[in-house]
Amino acid sequence: MTDREMVQGLLARNEATLHIISKTYGSYLRRIADNILNSPEDAEELLNDTLLKAWEAIPPAEPENLRVYLGKTIRNLSINLLRNQAAAKRGGESRQVIEELNECVSGGIEPEGALQEKELAEALNAFLATLSPEKRRLFLLRYWQAESIDSIASEIHKRPGAVAMALSRIRKQLKRHLEERGFEV
Amino acid sequence: MTGMQLFKALSQVEDKYLSESAPKKRTVFRNKWVFLAASLSLVVLAGFTAKLISGWEIIPPPSQENGDALLRWTTGPYPLSEKAQALLESHLSDHETWENIATSPEELEALMGIHLLTVQGDTSLLDWDCAAERKEEGGILLWGHYWQQGWQQLPGKDDEREVQWTIAVSSVLDTVGGTKEQPWPDVPEGYLSIRQTVHLDALNTEAEMFFYASDFPVSNADMELRHNVINCFLVYDEIAYSIHIRAALGAEIDAGEAFERAADVLSQLR
Fold this sequence. Notes:
The complex is a heterodimer. The longest helix of chain A is centred in the N-terminal third of the chain and has 22 residues, at 16-37. The relative contact order of chain A is 0.10. Chain A is mainly alpha-helical. Chain A is 75% helix and 0% strand. Chain A contains 10 helices and no strands. Chain B is an all-alpha fold. Chain B has one domain. Chain B is 60% helix and 3% strand. Chain B has helices at residues 3-9, 15-20, 32-54, 67-75, 82-93, 95-101, 105-114, 128-137, 149-153, 160-176, 189-202, 220-236, 240-249, 255-269; strands at residues 144-147, 207-210. The longest helix of chain B is centred in the first third of the chain and has 23 residues, at 32-54. Chain B is globular, with a radius of gyration of 20 Å. The interface between A and B is large, with 58 and 36 residues.
């Protein structure tokens, strides 16, 4: 079943569609949550939450790319849970990922206003546009999906060392990019 | 700003980029190594075909036990200057030097046999599996080389690759007595490759290098072809490989020219 058909199923309030979505994207979504939280139990719970949110949001929403839509949803839910202190202590691959991202920024406390977040998101999208598709994929696998270096290396058929090196270079590029746009890094 | 803020902000990445990061469907050429292996098969085939047609002399591959054979094979059909010959001979006969580099008798044997390199004290830098894998595929003539931690330790941020290149050249210059204008004076490729790795490591750069050529029959024409094809491979990766371009083709040819030559050869092969 295509994304479009699954969305149509949700629009038609067909509950069986949820089962199909879970079967199609369940492992992908669980993986994102588990990468971030290092907890299969939480990942399973968040998968259900994600499906519920999709059920509630569609309609009126009609995402063109259901996989990305669900991925974003579970990532947000995972981050919210991660920010809970107990979850943060446990940490998953995200702990290392966030440490790496700390290299790109000052680490100083800044207000997390909606404006700041919007500007940052715009800057990140602009940065991604400057990367080659290959590097962009690498960056997103690591910093969006919180995949481990080893798993990325296996996915893209490169050595873990080469992946780590490439990511290091991309982080430096990102730091420069953010600096040039006036972010305090 | 914190890494967490950045991580969170990435939630707003545009969908089109996330679509790109979906797992890719496998193709016949799953990655560059498979492509290289396929290219190599083509080269091997071309070499044998050429031999059948013209009867070119085939120089036997090196014997793992015979330093003389290794010397002949390493230098191939190219005439060497007296200085280069002396450098190579002294290096090959100086087993103590090899032993200083190798971390085990097996590694020493490999060093003598197929120029498989490692650096004393850190066998993790050596990828035996990869070398063996190439061997099983037949006709090995790849060079691999990448940088890890050392890259991040270098000063400057305008063009780190250029910085790395400069340092790498300088470190070799000390060894072979070259100049920046002519960094590879009359030194055969195998020799330079070895010295580079050792000296790069001395710079605290975690470097890895493995294999070039093992049981690949080498004729004059093959040798020329081989150099060019090597450079085709190098196009796939980044600046570290251009060191080998210079090592393979000589100081008078820069990377850009080498790429052009590689493209020519590839087009001829096709």
